[in-house]
Amino acid sequence: MLSASTENPPDCLLWSDALAAKYDGAGPPFGREQWDQLLGHCQAVCDWPAVAFARELIEAYPEAKVILTTRDVDSWYNSVLKTVHWRATEPSLRRLARHDWAASLYQPMLAKFWTSFFRGNFEKHGKAVFHDYYAEVRALVPPERLLEYRVGEGWERLCEFLEVPVPEDEFPNVNDTRGFVERCRSRMRAQWGNVAVRWLAYGTGVAAVGAVVAAALVRRIGWR
């Protein structure tokens, strides 16, 4: 999601098309060709909104390995409630989307994903969706292509599954609740700053044009 929200916001348009096709029947469902257009430059995909398309992506890329990160459902729910749920429902993001280009692509897609994937109410259905998602992935992926992995186990099992060398660096510990919220707020401050600069430039331009027009009128009246 970081790619679509910060690096290439137009990707949100394709994600929106995929969500509309799946949940609203608007347009053909995405197949390998469409997923390649959206994700063909990626080595891996994770997080939302990709989780809404577990079946579609597994069927489109039958050779892909799947890592299913596991955690306690209550811990997950409480974390999501304070992070992505907050982000998906905060009024300030909706206000920003009316003025900022990137947010205008990202916010509607996020809202559509959140409402559709969690059946209209995360607080009510979130834990049930969690269990259904894990059951679906386990049913779809052959055991030899599936790794159930708890973040924090370290590199060894993960690297063995992916058939890559174990890095010398320590396993990272990032993206906690506080860090997530602060990154979102920091980005929004920067986006509002860009909006303010555009408004200022527009206002200055209008004032300059007005001054030129006024001067021209004065000269014209003076000529008469």
From TrEMBL:
Keyword annotations from UniProtKB, A to Z: Membrane, Transmembrane, Transmembrane helix
Highest taxon above the source species: Eukaryota
TM annotation in the entry: 199-218
The keyword Transmembrane belongs to this UniProt entry's keyword annotation: yes
Protein name: NAD dependent epimerase/dehydratase
Record organism: Macrophomina phaseolina (strain MS6)
Lineage: Eukaryota, Fungi, Dikarya, Ascomycota, Pezizomycotina
